[in-house]
Write a structure and sequence with these properties.
- The protein contains five helices and 46 strands.
- By secondary structure, it is mainly beta.
- The protein folds into two domains: 86 residues, Immunoglobulins (Immunoglobulin-like, Sandwich); 666 residues, Maltoporin, Chain A, CATH 2.40.170.
- Strand 13 and strand 14 form a beta hairpin.
- The longest helix is centred in the first third of the chain and has 17 residues.
- Keywords: Cell outer membrane, Membrane, Receptor.
- InterPro entries: Beta-barrel_TonB_sf (IPR036942), CarboxyPept-like_regulatory (IPR008969), OMP_b-brl_3 (IPR041700), Plug_dom_sf (IPR037066).
- This is TonB-dependent receptor.
């Protein structure tokens, strides 16, 4: 109740503060010459005095549009749609709400099928509130999964533990089609690896989310948008790809869409299977003993994903939608490692550990969403979502370990174990978002409640006399329940050349984690109940038609993932293990960014972030010879980042995109075993697209990262990747063939060092990232009548920078 009181007071304060200015609304309905509504027509409003783009919008299913918060001035209104003549009218001295009633678009003087329309989104779009990586526009993305796509996205780095670093910070929250994922850690990575690029439209990188978003994700949000064709009528596409590195892998997908005036049925299916090869070399020094562990891994997988949805357009204002999706993943991981062990005072090895890890995993994941949306022409929007999901994983790990003498002819000791670790995660959430015009701006509020329950079983077996016997001392169960209640308020107000956005979100988190041994004794139980406030805001100034300045602020939280709180001790081999930390604290981040955009192309931003209670995976000593990996709160972090993004058309046949991030990252130790670190890093991304003779398109792209610090623990050397791809279309551009070569110079494997307490490690690792991929995509059905939201025009980037 106290949260609702605070929100009410804030609404009243904002209303009083902004109630002294007057804005107006322009409405109309767009139809063709047969008086049929035209949905998704593009609407633009420009100021007559300087041609500055003020507002953009699209018509809804009934052909209506509304441009809100328009100040008194003279304007030029333009309405356009493919295949029809654009409608243009001048509005003089707007001093009241204006209803233009019905606008009629006449047929174009030239038939659509006689006009060759070339419409392609740029690889990267830097918008006011996010960066969009258009996967469909990247030739080298062909045949990849979404985990591999993240390595190609500007500003992102994936470290040796699978952590994602965004502008020098860890802690990224994943969304799928605008809905947050409750998966994390290895579970999230496994799901991302199952998603093929053929089913993904774009990846949005949001570094300064508004209060409407969950506060989770201290570095920001990555939103993966799936393909959902908006063409009217029935259409579909199928695709397949073959990739070869050290081993072969395959992917395929199919997408269909059936859309009419009353509803839209859509879906897609994707499959991927094959083998990866990776290596990991760790040279560890601990208590005057050296361990030279070298591991080779073959990863076999078979993944299937299915998404099916239906939107029912009840009328022009009400839409009811249902979406179900699921995936299955069967993987088999074969690890072989060899670890010579010697005393620092000895010139020869004392012993050699030969270990194997045969890990078989089966995953089933399904989710269902029910959505209701109400939107009228007066600016009122109500959106309600109810979600339920279930995630199941069973893992069976067989680990034979043998200690040999230095000659590897005699077995000194052996340990053969087996670990069975089934896991179940159940997720339910309900949220409501509401917005309406208020005091010349747009006010929004909403609430959300989510509940996550995880159940984990860890059965550890020792092989004794040919039989696997349950080790009750190392076997246990872990259950974890988390309930998050949230409410927020947002206000967006535009006047003259200024745009103000204010927001406040409050979240209460209750969690209960319980570890129980096989003897039914409660070993650990950790309960938490905490409430946090997360303010956000931004101020934008349109200096002139070519220059825009903005300053934004947000406060974020990164809660530990469920696996990080699970104190199970999972054996990697006889010397190494991993375990969670039930006492791990969340980390909090304050982000401040100042940005400038010139001519809607060159974007420069300077940001500062301060992270409290930063946590990371660290390697710790476990007795004299063993070690374990565990997450710990180790430092407070400061990041100063300069980013530059610039697309440039060099020639009619040559387009260039450049992205640069230069940042300094400082970790000041709050843990006595951690050593403070300061590192300057430069990361670059570049893409060149060439239009060659015979309608062949060529892409040369690459990324580079100078020495950096990964997750506050690993000091790494430089690394990068060079990629080349070709594309050719056939059969009236319905058949698309692509050939891609990735990591041609094989420069993406990493090298680095880390120190924590008495443990020092020099590491090196990588995978078969040097690959060649051939893919085919064929589309059929109605491809002519386009929905405006599917098109990319010269105004799209500008439109995204203009607030309604």
């Amino acid at each position: 109740m106290k949260y609702l009181k605070v929100i009410t007071i804030l609404f009243l304060l904002i209303g009083n503060f902004t109630g002294y200015s007057q804005d107006y609304t322009i409405t109309a309905r767009v139809v063709d010459q047969q008086a049929q509504a035209i949905p998704y027509a593009t609407v633009t409003l420009s100021r007559l005095s300087d041609s500055l783009l003020i507002k953009t919008g699209i018509t809804n299913e009934a052909g209506y549009f509304q441009l809100k918060n328009v100040r008194n001035a003279d304007y030029l209104l333009r309405v356009s749609y493919i295949g029809l003549q654009a409608f243009t009218t001048q509005i003089n001295n707007l001093n009241a709400d204006l209803d233009l009633e019905t606008l009629v678009l006449a047929p174009a003087t030239e038939a659509l099928d006689e006009v060759k329309l070339i419409s392609k989104k740029p690889l990267v779009q830097v918008l006011a509130d996010k960066t969009v990586f258009n996967v469909e526009s990247s030739l080298t993305a062909t045949g990849s999964n979404s985990w591999e796509l993240l390595r190609m996205a500007p500003g992102l780095i994936i470290d040796n533990n699978g952590g994602i670093i965004l502008e020098g910070k860890t802690g990224v929250q994943f969304y799928f089609d605008g809905k947050p994922s409750q998966l994390s850690g290895d579970d999230l990575k496994m799901y991302l690896e199952s998603l093929q690029s053929n089913s993904i439209s774009s990846i949005e990188i949001i570094t300064q989310p508004s209060s409407k978003y969950d506060a989770a994700g201290s570095a920001g949000i990555i939103n993966i948008i799936f393909k959902k064709d908006k063409n009217l009528g029935t259409n579909a596409s199928v695709s397949g790809s073959f990739t070869y590195g050290d081993r072969a892998r395959y992917s395929s997908s199919a997408l269909f869409n059936n859309r009419n005036k009353t509803g839209n049925l859509y879906g897609n299916y994707s499959n991927g299977f094959g083998d990866y090869v990776s290596f990991l070399y760790l040279f560890r020094t601990q208590n005057n003993t050296q361990f030279d562990a070298r591991t080779e891994t073959i990863y076999n997988y078979n993944n299937n994903n299915l998404r099916l949805g239906y939107d029912w357009f009840i009328n022009s204002k009400n839409t009811l939608g249902i979406l179900v999706n699921g995936n299955t993943a069967n993987t088999f991981t074969n690890n072989d490692s060899r670890t010579p062990i010697r005393d620092l005072n000895s010139a020869s090895n004392d012993s050699i550990l030969i270990a194997q890890n045969r890990n078989q995993s089966k995953t089933t994941n399904y989710n269902a969403n029910l959505n209701y949306k109400y939107q009228d022409t007066l600016g009122t929007l109500l959106n309600i979502d109810a979600d339920y999901g279930n995630y199941e994983n069973t893992r069976d790990a067989f680990q034979p370990n043998f200690y040999f003498d230095p000659s590897e002819s005699n077995i000194l000791n052996q340990s053969i174990t087996r670990q069975l670790t089934p896991k179940n995660i159940e997720i339910a959430s309900f949220k409501t978002d509401y917005e309406q015009n208020l005091a010349g701006g747009v006010a929004a509020t909403g609430f959300k409640i989510s509940r996550v329950e995880t159940d984990n079983i860890f059965d550890f077996f020792d092989k004794i006399n040919g039989q696997f016997i349950l080790n009750q001392e190392q076997s246990n169960t872990f259950s974890y329940t988390e309930i998050i209640r949230a409410a927020y308020i947002n206000y967006n107000r535009r006047w003259e050349k200024w745009n103000l956005r204010l927001g406040l979100r409050v979240e209460n988190t209750r969690s209960d984690g319980k570890l129980e041994s096989a003897q039914n004794n409660v070993n650990n139980r950790v309960k938490r109940n905490y409430t946090n406030w997360f303010p956000s805001g931004g101020l934008t100034y349109q200096f002139n038609s070519k220059n825009q300045f903005a300053i934004t602020y947000s406060k974020r939280i990164q809660r530990p993932d469920y696996a990080s709180l699970n104190p199970f001790e999972y054996k990697i081999d006889e010397l190494s293990s991993s375990r969670g930390n039930p006492f791990l604290q969340p980390q909090y981040t304050d982000n401040l960014k100042l940005s400038h955009t010139h001519n809607y192309t060159l974007t420069t931003a300077l940001s500062y972030s301060y992270v409290t209670d930063f946590f990371a995976q660290v390697t710790q000593a476990d007795g004299e010879n063993k070690n374990f990996i565990s997450p710990q709160n180790i430092a407070n972090q400061e990041v100063i980042n300069l980013s530059i993004s610039y697309p440039k058309k060099i020639k009619d046949w040559w387009n260039l995109y450049l992205s640069l991030n230069a940042y300094t990252s400082s970790y000041k130790a709050t843990n006595e075993d951690f050593v403070s670190i300061n590192q300057e890093t430069l990361s670059l991304y570049a893409q060149n697209t060439f239009n060659l003779p015979a309608d062949i398109q060529m892409e040369v792209s690459g990324w580079y990262s100078s020495p950096s610090v990964w997750a506050g623990t690993y000091n790494t050397r430089s690394l990068g990747s060079l990629n080349v791809a070709f594309q050719k279309k056939f059969l009236n551009e319905n058949l698309n063939a692509r050939l891609a070569f990735n990591d041609i110079l094989y420069t993406s494997p990493w090298q680095g060092t880390t120190r924590y307490g008495v443990v020092f490690i020099e590491g090196r690792g990588g995978s078969d990232s040097r690959t060649v991929t051939f893919s085919l995509n064929y589309k059929f059905g109605n491809q002519n009548v386009k929905n405006a939201r599917k098109r990319d025009t010269g105004l799209d980037e500008e439109a995204a920078r203009v607030s309604n």
